[in-house]
Amino acid sequence: MLKDEQIALLKDISASIAFDERQAAVDELVMEGYVLKDGDLYELTSKGEMEVEAHAALQNAP
Question: Kindly report the CA angle at 31 between 29 and 36, in degrees rounded to 5?
């Protein structure tokens, strides 16, 4: 399970928010298969999207 900081970073990538100061963390998410780098662009993989959705579901659970 990812840490809250990693989930926040996935959400930033999904929303195309810059993350220059967190490049090492982004690289780790790429290596773990949560993020795909295509040239200068980053996007969530299906694994990354599922993790964000699962985290949201846990946050909204009663």
Answer: 70
Rounded CA separation 6/29 (Å): 8
DSSP string, 16-47: T---GGGHHHHHHHHHTTSEEEETTEEEE-HH
- pTM over 0.85, yes/no: no
CA–CA distance, 18 with 21 (Å, rounded to integer): 9
Where the chain has pLDDT below 50, the residues are: none
Domain extent, residue 15, equals: 4-60
